[in-house]
């Protein structure tokens, strides 16, 4: 199952043959998602936008977004809202902010109702504007009076220094000595530098303060819950259980160790394959029969049949199937001694093999008896040898593992029976309508079915 085409075919086979089970598991997953939604009530998210005027670099915008979600802003918002049992630490986990295009900080708040989410985002946005203005020194509630007057006092001192420089330049005995000219030049350079510094201070003042942040209106009340919503949880639960069921089927198919080829089956039983008996497949042919509520549930879900078995090939008419069965009987006669009967061993639960054994009994004829016994696979036990000349194992391909077949072979050896041959039961689809009065294909042979089998030759255990 390592090739992709085979994998796709396998998934399609799962969907066709186990769709009832997959549907039930999807419903169970949906119920699990619904239960999860009850444990986690819906959340609503509202967003408020704050405009930052002026020119801002990307790193500066990211810094402002971090300030909007800081604990200082969250604590002020919690105090302003006054919600019982809601602290600033909890609000900090409910608030997020990001920088958008156009120097906009988008602040989002999450709460259990749309109204609370709207109030939360509006309050956080307002507290962010107030806190940012206070940091920049433009807030009206600043407690440091020197912070606002410092730049203006500096300008006054620079202007006074410029006037003194002018006075010194005028009194420096202009034009008479070289030292006087150099002094005037140095003083002019100093005054020019001070004037340029004042210009830069005036230009940097508004950009540094970044005053005038504006909340762009109240946050819109959310119309729906934030993801994951209840519908999303239900859909996710159904999809998760469905995928887990499909993956479980694929894993089971990958670790399946049932033998499918004739060579593997013959090596496990230590004998030869005499041929294949075709059996018209029925719905319950690949699964064990049972009664009661558990068996009815298995049939309802479709788990009473094996899904990994390919669709049985189409067979010819009933006469063709009987001819193939006679040929298998003829090969069997060549492998048995002239006298004695044969013990037909059928693993329990293999309905296809049990019906194939019934066809062999019906097609056999002669004086010797053919005895059919069912053998449990978990603890195989075969009757002790009486008049039998050997054991014939009848089973369907892909139904047993090598260990199980080895256990059947050991049980035959413990009972004194030599495995003289193997007959494979192959399910087929009938093309023509079967006759109601014919018994080989219609009926099921009981476990103690017997029939005459004419034998000849003395090459028991030989090859065909």
UniProtKB/TrEMBL annotation:
<dbReference type="InterPro" id="IPR050445">
    <property type="entry name" value="Bact_polysacc_biosynth/exp"/>
</dbReference>
<keyword id="KW-1003">Cell membrane</keyword>
<protein>
    <submittedName>
        <fullName>Wzz/FepE/Etk N-terminal domain-containing protein</fullName>
    </submittedName>
</protein>
<feature type="transmembrane region" description="Helical">
    <location>
        <begin position="233"/>
        <end position="252"/>
    </location>
</feature>
<keyword id="KW-0472">Membrane</keyword>
<dbReference type="InterPro" id="IPR003856">
    <property type="entry name" value="LPS_length_determ_N"/>
</dbReference>
<dbReference type="Pfam" id="PF02706">
    <property type="entry name" value="Wzz"/>
</dbReference>
<feature type="transmembrane region" description="Helical">
    <location>
        <begin position="21"/>
        <end position="40"/>
    </location>
</feature>
<feature type="domain" description="Polysaccharide chain length determinant N-terminal">
    <location>
        <begin position="6"/>
        <end position="65"/>
    </location>
</feature>
<keyword id="KW-0812">Transmembrane</keyword>
<comment type="similarity">
    <text>Belongs to the CpsC/CapA family.</text>
</comment>
<keyword id="KW-1133">Transmembrane helix</keyword>
């Amino acid at each position: 199952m390592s090739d992709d085409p085979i994998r796709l075919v396998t998934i399609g086979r799962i969907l066709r043959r186990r769709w009832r089970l997959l549907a039930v598991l999807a419903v169970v997953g949906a119920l699990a998602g619904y239960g999860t939604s009850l444990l986690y009530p819906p959340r609503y998210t509202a967003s408020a936008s704050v405009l930052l005027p002026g020119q801002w670099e990307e790193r500066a915008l990211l810094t402002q977004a971090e300030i909007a979600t800081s604990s200082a802003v969250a604590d002020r918002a919690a105090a302003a809202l006054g919600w019982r049992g809601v602290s600033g630490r909890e609000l900090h986990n409910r608030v997020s902010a990001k920088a958008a295009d156009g120097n906009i900080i988008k602040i989002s708040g999450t709460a259990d109702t749309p109204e609370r989410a709207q109030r939360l985002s509006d309050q956080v946005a307002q507290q962010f504007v107030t806190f940012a203005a206070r940091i920049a020194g433009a807030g009206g509630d600043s407690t440091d009076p020197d912070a606002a007057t410092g730049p203006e006092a500096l300008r006054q001192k620079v202007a006074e220094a410029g006037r003194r420089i002018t006075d010194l330049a005028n009194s420096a005995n202009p034009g008479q000595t070289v030292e006087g000219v150099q002094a005037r030049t140095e003083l002019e350079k100093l005054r020019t530098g001070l004037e340029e510094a004042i210009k830069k201070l005036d230009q940097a003042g508004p950009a540094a303060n970044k005053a005038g942040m504006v909340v762009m209106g109240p946050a819109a009340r959310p119309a729906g819950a934030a993801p994951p919503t209840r519908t999303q949880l239900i859909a996710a639960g159904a999809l998760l259980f469905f995928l887990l069921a499909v993956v479980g089927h694929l894993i089971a198919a990958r670790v399946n160790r049932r033998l499918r080829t004739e060579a593997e089956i013959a090596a496990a039983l230590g004998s030869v394959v005499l041929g294949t008996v075709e059996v018209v497949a029925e719905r319950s042919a690949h699964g064990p029969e049972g009664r009661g509520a558990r068996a009815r549930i298995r049939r309802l879900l479709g788990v009473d049949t094996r899904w990994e078995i390919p669709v049985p090939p189409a067979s010819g008419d009933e006469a063709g199937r009987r001819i193939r069965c006679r040929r298998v009987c003829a090969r069997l006669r060549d492998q048995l001694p002239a006298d004695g009967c044969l013990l037909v061993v059928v693993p329990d639960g293999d309905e296809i093999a049990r019906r194939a054994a019934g066809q062999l009994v019906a097609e056999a004829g002669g004086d010797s008896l053919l005895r059919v016994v069912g053998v449990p696979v978990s603890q195989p036990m075969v009757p002790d040898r009486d008049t039998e000349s050997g054991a014939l194992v009848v089973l369907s391909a892909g139904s047993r593992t090598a260990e199980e077949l080895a256990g059947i072979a050991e049980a035959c050896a413990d009972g004194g029976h030599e495995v003289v041959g193997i007959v494979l039961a192959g399910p087929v689809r009938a093309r023509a309508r079967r006759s109601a009065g014919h018994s080989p294909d219609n009926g099921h042979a009981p476990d103690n079915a017997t029939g005459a089998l004419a034998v000849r030759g003395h090459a028991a255990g030989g090859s065909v």
